[in-house]
Specification:
The chain is an alpha/beta fold. Helices cover 33% and strands 23% of the residues. It starts with a strand and ends with a helix.
Length: 444
């Protein structure tokens, strides 16, 4: 079966003759050719990319009906929430599946991840493997691209959670309103027997619940909501968090992780788990790889590796560090911006880095097919004149991390932001081995 999909660069309908030559016996399309071959099954649909999801679900016998599927969407926090849910439910004794930016997991079998949310056919094939492996719960990140491109079409969700929405992916969505609508579409299409959970403290959180048929719930660190939490105290190794009146020490830190932990607790509670068991199990879970990952050098320098690659995520991480630190030490931030992605956030991220750090080193992230120097120049446009002296531009990421390690004295803090869990650097279509944490440890 060949799906003729209209894309931004090419129209799949022009490849129908090639598909037939290669043996396709069925064509799904939005427009029939002038003389359709009688020996071929032609399926005319309104939107081909939406049909792929539905057909894939039917082909793989609707695996999402065989377990409870939970989707997590939002600009920041998707990976942490989905991964914590997988770890929590594994600790509670269930066999689970995970579909995430970092990795896909079936029980204990790890499958490398190439996208936050795979294409519809690959995703459904993966979910079929999870169903066949007797997974009871599957936790999945749902990116705005995947929702807009109908990659999750046809899947049955038992629940959905919204973390937050800030400036990101406008290279794809063009406007913030389009980006918001993509997230909202996920909730609009939930069934009435599902639940919809949203962050009440995000100014667009309530938008997600406007048209959903699902049961509506909210969570908050600031005010009244169905699920509430309060940070009692925190340091670089973790925090004491009060969730719905019960205090426990968690091995994650920061205001943003307070929201992530509360979202995980709320989802587990809505799925019927015991409150005390949720909190006990959650308190044993380590931080997610590349998400505020804490390390310490032999001479007492603190290193933090984080995936923060949006203005809001970078601001959250720097705010957390500044809340915990004594201000008797230097905070050195190493950060870059990805190539062939939303360029509007580059000066904004640079401005945040220099404003909230003692030193900022701008470097390459994944330049992809862009000139790394040009990306750094766009970042520099966001640096006010008074901060020039504390700003360095070092294109080579290894050299940038080495410079930060050289500058840091005992007690100083180095934040390496942007790549987190990634173990490569993509330059001109080639992925070169590169791990921020390993490079920093090497410099120590």
């Amino acid at each position: 079966m060949f799906f003729a999909v209209r894309g931004s660069l090419a129209d799949g309908h022009s490849y129908i003759p090639t598909a037939l030559e290669k043996g396709a016996v069925a064509i799904v399309c939005e427009e029939l050719p002038q003389n359709p071959m009688a020996s071929v099954v032609w399926i005319l649909v309104e939107e081909t990319h939406a049909a792929i999801g539905t057909i894939a679900c039917n082909f793989y016998q609707n695996p999402s009906h065989e377990f409870k599927l939970i989707g997590v969407t939002g600009t920041n926090g998707k990976t942490t929430v989905a991964t914590l849910l997988y770890q929590l439910y594994t600790r509670l004794g269930y066999k689970c599946g995970l579909v995430s930016t970092v990795q896909n997991i079936i029980g204990t079998q790890v499958i490398p991840s190439t996208h936050t949310t795979p294409d519809a056919v690959s995703l459904t094939a993966l979910l079929r493997q999870m169903a066949d492996s007797s997974c009871s719960f599957v936790f999945m990140e749902c990116s705005s691209h995947a929702i807009h491109q109908e990659r999750i079409k046809g899947q049955k969700f038992a629940g959905a959670a919204f973390t937050n929405i800030t400036h990101d992916h406008l290279d794809y969505h063009v406007t913030f309103d389009n980006y918001l609508k993509a997230k909202k579409k996920f909730f609009d299409e939930l069934d009435s027997d599902a639940f919809a959970l949203t962050n009440k403290d995000d100014r667009n959180g309530s938008v997600m619940l406007q048209n959903t048929k699902a049961s509506k719930y909210t969570y908050s660190l600031r005010g009244m909501a169905d699920f509430r939490a309060r940070i009692v105290e925190q340091d670089f190794s973790g925090m004491l968090l009060d969730i719905d009146g019960q205090e426990a020490w968690y091995r994650l830190t920061g205001h943003f992780n307070g929201y992530n932990l509360l979202a995980v607790y709320a989802i587990a509670f809505l799925l019927g788990e015991n409150k005390e068991e949720i909190i006990t199990a959650l308190s044993t879970i380590p931080s997610v790889r590349g998400r505020f990952e804490f390390m310490k050098s032999p001479n007492g320098v603190i290193g933090i590796v984080d995936y923060a690659h949006t203005p809001d995520a970078l601001k959250n991480v720097l705010e957390t560090i500044n809340q915990i630190r004594t201000n008797n030490e230097q905070l050195i931030t190493v950060v870059g911006c990805g190539g062939n992605r939303d360029a509007a956030k580059r000066p904004e991220m640079a401005a945040i880095a220099v404003e909230m750090s003692n030193r900022a080193i701008f470097t390459s992230d994944n330049p992809r097919n862009e000139d790394p120097e040009a990306i750094l120049e766009e970042m520099m446009q966001g640096v006010p004149g008074q901060h020039y002296k504390k700003t360095l531009k070092i294109t080579d990421r290894r050299e940038a991390i080495k410079t930060a390690a050289t500058l840091a004295q005992k007690g100083d803090i180095i934040l390496i932001a942007g790549k987190g869990h990634e173990t490569y650097q993509e330059i001109k279509g080639i992925k070169h081995p590169f791990d921020d944490r390993a490079v920093l440890e090497e410099m120590w």
